[in-house]
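About this split. The held-out portion is used to measure sequence recovery: a designer receives only the structure tokens and must propose an amino acid at every position. Recovery is the fraction of positions where the proposal matches the reference. Here is one held-out target exactly as it appears in the evaluation file.
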């Protein structure tokens, strides 16, 4: 079972291969900022399944969660802050290698990447944010593979 460095390496490999594959298939034109963003989302996905236990990934995620929740509160978006806080606590519900290490969590956890822009009625939300959803899910998949969930 790899530690966070192994999962980051797996996420980086899957992320780079995904970006290269998308470019070669003509699904995207190379843009360094877009490529970095997609690889970053892939790395976040690769770390997420271990957010349910004391780990480097947990430290990173909860620092981001706190900053985002504070930002929502400072903007007066209290209902959004409450929902975000609730969903941020969900990984702590359950045991390690529990629900966060399932194929269905790999597909459900990144749904806010699509749902929030849709809810906010962003123009072309699906086309713009689908690559980021796919990148996060791909990183998540790399974590599950490295943990031996798909033998």
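Reference sequence for scoring:
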């Amino acid at each position: 079972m790899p530690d966070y460095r192994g999962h980051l390496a797996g996420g980086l490999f899957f992320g780079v291969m995904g970006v290269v594959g998308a470019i070669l298939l003509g699904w995207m034109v190379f843009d360094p900022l877009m490529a970095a963003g997609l690889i970053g989302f892939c790395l976040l996905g690769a770390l997420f399944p271990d957010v349910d236990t004391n780990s480097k990934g947990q430290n990173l995620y909860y620092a981001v969660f706190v900053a985002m929740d504070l930002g929502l509160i400072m903007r007066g978006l209290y209902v959004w802050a409450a929902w975000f806080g609730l969903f941020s606590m969900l990984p702590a519900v359950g045991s390690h290698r529990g629900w966060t290490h399932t194929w269905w969590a790999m597909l459900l956890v990144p749904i806010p990447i699509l749902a929030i822009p849709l809810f906010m009625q962003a123009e072309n939300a699906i086309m713009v944010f689908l690559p980021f959803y796919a990148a996060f899910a791909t990183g998540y998949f790399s974590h599950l593979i490295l943990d031996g969930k798909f033998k």
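Annotator remark: The helical segments are 4-24, 32-47, 56-74, 78-89, 103-108, 111-119, 125-146.
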